[in-house]
């Protein structure tokens, strides 16, 4: 196992449940942001002409719903 990863595991094991909850609340937004940024980067890498809608097409699509 990666040495840094094992150090993090040991640190998490030493935290109380309350402290772990506080850390998760603080880190949750950063975790979600990194997940979304990775998805955006992956989507940009495979973007082809015609994969997106212009403003008028998007409004027309939304009005059909």
Verbal overview:
With 65 residues, this protein is mainly α. The protein is 78% helix and 0% strand. It is built from 3 helices and no strands. It is elongated, with a radius of gyration of 21 Å. The relative contact order is 0.06. The mean pLDDT is 89.
* Termini separation: 50 Å
Pick out the low-confidence regions.
Answer: none
Write down the secondary-structure element order: HHH
Strand content: under 5%
> What do the pLDDT scores average to?
89
The helix content is over 70%
Quick one: overall form?
Answer: elongated
Question: Given the structure, what is the number of helices?
Answer: 3
Compile the SSE list and pairings:
Blueprint: H1 3-14, H2 17-45, H3 55-64
């Amino acid at each position: 196992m990666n040495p840094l990863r094992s150090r993090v595991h040991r640190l998490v094991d030493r935290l109380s449940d309350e402290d772990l909850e506080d850390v998760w609340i603080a880190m949750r937004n950063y975790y979600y942001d990194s997940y979304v940024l990775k998805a955006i980067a992956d989507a940009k890498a495979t973007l082809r002409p015609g994969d997106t809608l212009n403003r008028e097409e998007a409004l027309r699509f939304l009005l059909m719903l």
